[in-house]
User: Fold these one by one.
Assistant:
Number 1:
Amino acid sequence: MEIAYYRGCSLHASSNLYDIQIKAVFGRLGLELKEIEDWNCCGATSAAKTDEFLAVALPARNLGIADASGLPEIVIPCSSCYSRLLVSQKKLAEDPALHETINAQLEKKVLGKIKVSSILEVLVPEVQAEGFAGMASKKLDGLKPACYYGCLLTRFPGNVKVPDNVENPQGIETVCRAVGAQPLDWSYKTDCCGAAAVINNTGTSLQLMSRIMKDAIARGANCFVTTCPMCQFNLDAYQDQVGEKYGIKERLPIYFLTELLGIAMGISPELLQLDRHFTDALGLLKELKLL
Amino acid sequence: MSFPIVEFDPEVSQSLLHEVMEQSGQNLQACYQCRRCAAGCPVGEETGVSPDRLIRMILLGEKEEVLNNQLVWKCLACYTCGTRCPNGIQTAKITETLKQMCKQAGLAPAAPKIDAFHHSFMSATSHFGRFNELEFMGLYEMENTREAIKRGDWKAIAKEMKDQAKLGLTMIKKKRMHMGLEKVKKMSEVKGLYNKAKARSKDR
C-alpha cells in the first residue's frame, strides 16, 4: 500500500536516522512511503507564535501538494509537523475566506481530502493485524520502557479530534506490547520536555526533563520510547546535563519507536543507526541479549 | 478611611479585553478561575503568572503587566491549559496574541532570547523554505549576541558560546550534524506566502 509521507526538516537533518528507520520498518510492513515533492517547513511553533497567517499558510502549501498526490493518507512522524498540518487542514475547513485567500497563492490547491495521520495511527493497526507476529519474531523481553508522547501528539490549539486518550494515550504502549516489551504506567507521558526552549530558555527545559526522568526511573523504567524527534533529541542530548544538575545518576536510552520495531523485526542495529544516540542505546539491548 | 484593593477602570479593561478576545479568538469572559490550567502549566510556577492569572489581569485591564510578563514569552505552547479548560479557553493562543501586541506596541520583549529564537526561525525558513539547523543557529546566535552586547552582558555571551560549541561538537561526533543545505525549488511560492503575511499584518 502507498502512503504519502511528509518527513519535515528535523528528519532531514539531526534526526535523519529516524527517517532511515521509518523507511526500513514500513518496508517490512509492506507500506510504501511516497515523499511529497518540494515540501516546505511547516513553521512549527515559531510561526504560531509570530504570525497567525503563516501558521496556517506554510502547512497549507504541503497539504496542497499532498492532496495533488491523489493518495488517501499522509503519515507525518514528527509531532510538531503533524500537529501543524492537521490544525491547518481543520482551520481551512472552518474558514472558507482564509481557504480561498491561501489557495489563491498556491499552485497546488488545498482540497482538504487527504487524511493526516501520526505515525501511531499507521503503526497501531499494523501491529494488531493478523500476521504481524510472524514479521516481528524477536520478543523484546526485559525492556521496560516509559512511553513518552510529549505535547503535540494529543493536544492541539483547536478543536481537533484526537485518535487516542488525551491524558493517558496508549498507542506507543500497544506497539511495545506487540513486540514483547513491558511498558510501565507512569505520570509524565504527556508532559512537556521544553522542546525548542532547550535552546532559548535552557534552565526551564532542563527542569522539565528532570521531572520526566525522575518519574520514569522511580517507576523502574530502563529506557524511554518516543515518536517525536524533538522529545528524542532533548532527552538524549541533554540527559547528562539534566543528570548533573538534578543529581540523577541513571542514564536511560531514548529509543525511537521504530528502533524497537526494527530490532524485533531483526533489522540490524547498524542499519537502524543506533550508534548515533547521545546516550548509549546499544548497551541495554546487549545486556538483555536482544542484539 | 478606605484604600482601593483593586483599581478597576471599566473603559480600559473593556478595550484591552475585546482586543485580546478578537485577536486570539478566545472567550476570556468564560473563565471562572477554577485553575485547572494553573495545575498543568509547566512554566506557571517559574514565571509567577499562571494562565488563570493572565486572564484575570486582562479582565482587570492591567495592560502594562499583561504585555510585560514572563509567561507571555515563556509559554511553551504545550496546550495543556487549553486542553483541560472546562470552558475551552486556549491560553496558549492568548500568549501568542499578546506577543504580537507587545511587538506592535514597540515594547521590548520580557525574554529577549526567546524573541530572537522565533524571529530567527522564521527568517531562516523564509530564506530557503526549509529549516536548516546550522543556518538557524548562526542567525539566532548573531541576534542574541547583538542583544547581549547592547546590554554589555559579556558573561552571557561567553556562556552561550561555550554551551553551543559543546553541543555542536557532540553532534558532529554522533553524526547528528547536517551540513547540507535544504531548499525548496519553488521558492517564489513560499516567498509569496511570507509577503502576503506581511501585507496582512500591515492592514491590521
Note: Residues 136-287 of chain A form a domain with the Rossmann fold fold (CATH 3.40.50.11810).
Number 2:
Amino acid sequence: MSGPAQIRLEGLGKTFVHAPLGPGDEHREDHGVVVLRDINLTISRGDFVALQGTSGSGKSTLLHLIGLLDRPSQGRYLLEGRDTAELDDDAASAIRNQHIGFVFQSFYLIPYATALENVMLPGMYSDRPQSEIRARAVELLERLGLADRMHFRPSRLSGGQQQRVAMARALLNDPDLILADEPTGQLDSTTSKEIIELFRTVNQTGKTILLVTHDEDVALAARRVIRLSDGRIVGPS
Amino acid sequence: MGVQLFLRIAKMACGAVFSAKVRSLFVVLGVSFGIASLTLIVTAIDGANRRAVEMVEMFGPDTVLVLGGNIKKRAAGMRTMTLTWDDVKRIRQSLPGAYLVVPMRSKSDLTLRRGNQTFSGTHGVGATENYASCWNWPLSEGRDLNQEDVDRAAKICLLGDKPARELFGAESPVGQVVFVNKVPFQVVGRLSYRGMASGGGHDLDNRLIMPLTTLTMRFNLDRKYFRAIRVKFHRPEYMAAHVENLGDLLRSLHRLGPGDDDDFTVITADEVLKFLAMFKGGLLVFLGATAAIAVLVGGFVLANLFSITVSERSFEIGLKKALGAPNSAIMLQFLAEAALLTLIGGLLGLAMGLGLGQFLTGLGVLVIRFSWKVFFLSLASALAIGVVFGLKPARRAAAMDPILALRGPE
C-alpha cells in the first residue's frame, strides 16, 4: 500500500542549548534540554501518519525538523534519499516551497490579505506566472467550498473556513508532503471532522500527510500512529 | 469558536490595522518634514543663484553705481546728496575707460493719468541720455533718452512695463500723452519687462523715466545735486582699477583729506554678488541644519516604527519563511515597504516644501525656483532614508528563526 521511503530519520536528536527555566528543566543534561533523542523513523510516499504525544513530548519539534524549519543536533535526515544536512537556508526554503505544505493550529492567515491572496502566497516565491497561480488558487478555493468567500479577509471567516483557506494555501504548489501541527486544535468537533475528512481526501490523491495531534479521534483517521513521549518514540500502540 | 472570542479577535485585528495606519502616517509625516526642508533649501538656493545671475546681468559686470553718502558709515545727518553735475562732467572728461556716465535722481509715488484712467505709486527717475543702455535694459519699443531731451528739459518719458500695461493695455504707448502729477508728458519709449518684483520690496517695472533736467524743473527738486551716477567702463577685466580711479577722482573733486571718510559709495556687480553670497550662506546654514535634523528625525522615526512593525508581524515573517520565502525576499519586502512609505513622505514633503516656498516668496522673504533636479533629489533622498534606516529592521526580519517568529512576540 505504501510507496518507497520518502522520509528517513536515522538516530535523530535535538537539544536546545539555551534552555528556558521552568518545565522541561528536569531533562537538562550537560549542554541544555534534550527534546528529541535517537529517533529512527521511515515514512513512505502516500502514507498518512499521526504523531501523538502529550505537550512537551517533542512532537512539534519533530515536525519542524521534518519540515526543514529547524536542524537536528544529532543523526541524519534523508528526504527523498538526499541528506538534508547539505542544504543551505535558501535550498531548504526552495524545498519547503515546492515539496512541503504546512497547516498550523492557529491557521496563520495574513490578516490584511483576502482569502485568495493568502492562498496565492506560496506561489509568490515560486517562478510560476501570476495568472497560473491565481487560477490554481481559485480552483482550490472552489474545490474546498469557499468560492463565495474568496475576497473576504480572514477576520470575516469562521475557524473552519480559515483552516480550509490554510489547506488551500498548503496545496497551492502541489507539494508531495503535507505537515500539519494540531490543525483541529482551535476548532469544534464538527468542524474538526470536516477538516480531518479533507486531509483524508488529500491523502487519497497520493500526498503524504504527517499530522501532529493530541486528539485520539483525529489520530484514528490516520493510517499509522506514532507516539512520542519524553522525546522518544514509544511505539504505535 | 465562541462569538465573544471571535469578536475580540476581530477587534484586535481592526486595532492592528488602525495602529499600522497611524504608524504609517507618522513615518510619512516624519520623512515629509525632512524632505520639505530639503526641497525648500534647494529651491531657495536655486532661486538665489538665478537671482544673482539676473542681478549681475542687470547691474552689468562692466558698470558701477555711485551713490551719494557713505552706506557703510551711515552717520546721523550725513549728507547723501553729494554728487553734482561737476562730478559728472569731470568723470566724463577724465576718467580712463569710462564711456557712459548717467546721473540719476528719483521721485517716488508719482500719479499717472491717461484720459480718466489713473495709476499711482510709480517710481519716477530723472536721468540723462542713454538711460536704458546704461542699465542694460532693452526697450521693447520706441527710443532711449537723448542729449537734446536733456538740454531742452523736454516733457517726454520712457514708460516701465507695469504702468504701460495698466494704462495702455495691449496698445502701444509710444507717441501718446500721459499726465504725470498733472504735467503732460509724451511717451517716447517703453522699457521691456524685467520681472524682479519678488523679494526686492518694490517693483522694478513700475517706473517712469524722464530727463533729469525735466524732473528737477517740473517737480521742484534741488538742481545741483543728485543721488546716484551710473558709470559704464570699457575693459571690465580692470574693474578694480576703474573703481579705484573713480574713488580717487571723486575724493579730490569733493576735496576730502587723507583722514576723511568717503562721502560716496561705489557699488559693483561684485558687491551685489557678495551680498547675495552672504544671504545664501545664511540660508544654507539655517535651512541646511533644519533639513539635516528633520531628515534624521524622519529616519529615526522610520527605524523605530519599523522595528516595532517587524516584531508585531513576526508571525507573518515566520509564515512566509515556512512557505518557502528565501531570506532575501523577506528583507526586500520590508525594504520595499519602507521605501514606499518614504516615497509617499517624499512626495508630500516636496509639495509642502514648494507650498512653503511659494508662501515665503509671496511674503518677499526669499525666491524659490522649482526644477526637475529638486524633484529627483527629494525623491532620491526619501528613498535613501527608507533604505538606510529601514535596513536594520529589514535585516532583523530576514534573520529571524521561522519557528520563533511563528510563535510571535513573547
Note: Chain A has one domain: 5-235.
